[in-house]
Every structure is written in C-alpha cells, then in structure tokens.
Amino acid sequence: MTELHAEVTTEAPFPKGLLVWNYNDHEHVVGTHYKGYQSIEILAEADTWCFSKRTANLPFIRFPTSALQFSYYPNENLQRSYHQGPFGLLLRQEFHFKELGPNRTQVTLHSRVTVPRFLGFLQPFFQKLMYRWFWSVWEEDMAMRERRLKVWQLGFKDFVGLDYVNNKTAAPEKPDLERPYPVELPVPKITKIALGGVSRPFRSSEEVGYGLPDLPVG
Amino acid sequence: MAEYIKVGDVAELEGAGQFSRWVGNHDILVFKWNGQIRAFTNVCPHFGGPVGFHKMKNGKFTCLWHNLEFSADTGQCLSVPRLRLREYQLKIEDNSIYARLVEDEA
User: Fold this and answer.
1) Which terminus of chain A, N or C, has less C-beta within 10 A?
2) Residues of B in contact with A29 (CB under 8 A)
3) Residue in A172, A175, A206 closest to B16 by CB
4) Side-by-side strand order, sheet with B26-33
C-alpha cells in the first residue's frame, strides 16, 4: 500500500470562530455549494463531532458520488474528517486553523488516502483533484464568510436576524468591528435535519447574485 | 427619521424581476410580484444568507445558504415556521424606488 497526499495552505481575513462555524455548518453544502452537492443527511451529532452522508459531484468525475463523513474537533485549532467513498477508499483530512490576529486566520488542509502500491502514479492527479476541490469550495465560501461577518458586526442573531430590521427601529450608525466571534459547537440545525436530511429543492437556478453595488452618495 | 431612502430604480427590476442592495445597513430585496413592487429584508433570519440570490420561482424565494424557502406573498418562511421576513413600505416616484427603513421612532 502507499499513501497519496495533498496539502493546501491559505490565509483568510476572518476570525477563527467564523471559519470554524463555516466548516461545521454542514447543512450549507447543499445551499452555498449547490452546484457541487446534491444532498446531505446528518446521521448523528454531538458538540464536537458530526456523522453525515453527502452526495456530491467531484471535479473530473462525471457521476455523483455518495460518501459517509465523520468530522470531529480534537481542539479549537484542528478538525479531522474521514470520508468513506466509492471502492472502499477512505479519505482522511485535517484542517488546521492558526489565529494570526483578531480577523486573520491561516487554514491548512492535509488530505490523505491509502491506495494499493501500483496506484501510486495517481499522486499528481490526487494533488490536482484536492487542490481544485479546495479552491472551488473556498471561493463560494468566501462570499458567505464576508456576508456573515458583515451581518455579525451589525448585531445579527441566529434564528432571529437583525433586531433593528425586525423592530423597524434605527440601524446602528457603524458596525461593531470588535464584536467577538466565539467558537460555538455544534452549529444549530434547521428542522428538516431531524426528518432525514436536506436535498437541493430545485433542479436549476437563475442566479441574481449577492446584490447590486451601493448607490452613489448624494 | 421616518423618511424614505432610495433603494434603486424601477428599471433595475427588468430581467430577473428582482434585485437586492445594501442601503443604510439594510439589505433590501425589491421584487415585482402579481403586478406589485414590494420589498423584504434580504437577510435570512436563520444565519444571514441572501434570500434573493436565486430568482424567485413559483412565488417562493430560496435562500442561497441553506435553501430556506419564503413566500413572496407574505415573507413567511415555509421551511422553519417561526421565521418571517420583514416587509418594507415602499414609495415610487419618477421611476425611483424608496423604502421606509425606520417606522418605530422608539
């Protein structure tokens, strides 16, 4: 047997708690990443671990593949995930989070899979596959994280929204850029999870997007 | 402070029939439905996702992040019943759309 290994490292302008939220918000894969994922079912979960089944369209592979995934947090700076996919292959991943400042975090992903020795020639393909997968997911998550941080700094509360919007009162003049973003697990789930998971509710989308640019002042 | 703030032009509804924009720390989803121009908050009360990212289908908005569905008639969330989108009062003048952001002066 031999091991295929891929590593990707990058930095993000977000607090660590927000990144941990993003990686542990397992339900968003069929929303934010709707082009790549078809369904997710949370089979079991506790504070620091989650066992799920997800169906995805991977880069270079023409048909959807289902995988069982187990993720857990040994500590606030590390997430380990195990994906049991087709052909009995077990993909092991480690996400390392390193706080570089209040709003800056380094993320390093190690991906490993053990294969028969004669498949060792797939190492360059594996690196390319993992690299492409990481960056396609990362790009979609960036817009989500930016928006999440924006509403967070405006006082957003999960399952409530923005109080000043709901109450029709005056908005804060400035966002609270210092609002702490704690690591809180597990991320709350929506009702349907208890009923057996969520699937993408549409076949195709006409995207309008995150919004139009601000109007000119004055 | 109960004034109306410009959120866009009627012409911006051409094509998709909806648009969203941040104005004064409000993200406002403006849309045309059953011949009327209306506006909801574009901030999903679940986790803050963009309700109007996808074009509305069959009278329903589907939030991008977690697929929560909302009625275009009422703003009621059809996925999690306790959630609802705030509707903004609108005024249309000279093909510009204005929203009343603040209604309660308290």
Assistant:
1) C
2) none
3) A206
4) B18-23, B26-33, B36-41
A213 contacts on B by Cβ (under 8 Å)? 21
Decide if B21 is inside a domain: yes
Contact between B24 and A171 using a beta-carbon 8 Å cutoff: yes
Residues of B in Cβ contact (< 8 Å) with A191? 79-80
DSSP secondary structure string, A153-186? HTT-BTTTB-HHHHTT-PPPSS--TT------SS
- The answer to whether A69 and A61 have CB atoms below 8 angstroms apart is no
Count Cβ atoms within 10 A of the Cβ of residue A212 and give its class: 0-12 exposed, 13-18 middle, 19 or more buried: middle
Model confidence, pTM:
0.92
Q: Is residue B28 part of a domain?
A: yes
Cβ of B21 within 8 Å of Cβ of A211? The answer is yes
What CATH number does residue B40 fall under?
A: 2.102.10.10
Cβ count near B2 (within 10 Å): 11
Domain interval for residue A16: 2-198
Is residue B106 domain-resident? no
**Contact present, B12 and A204 (Cβ < 8 Å):** no
What values do phi and psi take at B31, rounded to 5? Answer: -150, 160
**Following DSSP, what letter does each residue of A46-92 receive, concatenated?**
ETTEEEEEEEE--TT--S-EEEEEEEEEEETTEEEEEEE-GGG-EEE
**CB distance from A201 to chain B under 8 Å?**
yes
**Whether A206 and B62 lie within 8 Å, measured CB to CB:** no
- Give the model confidence (pLDDT) of A130-171 as tens digits: 999 899 899 999 999 999 999 999 999 999 999 999 999 999
Q: How far is Cα B45 from Cα A166, in angstroms, rounded to an integer?
A: 9
- Closest chain A C-alpha to B71 CA, distance in angstroms: 15
Cα dihedral sign, B62-A23-A82-A61: positive
Please give, rounded to a whole number of angstroms, the shortest distance from the CA of B12 to a CA of chain A: 9
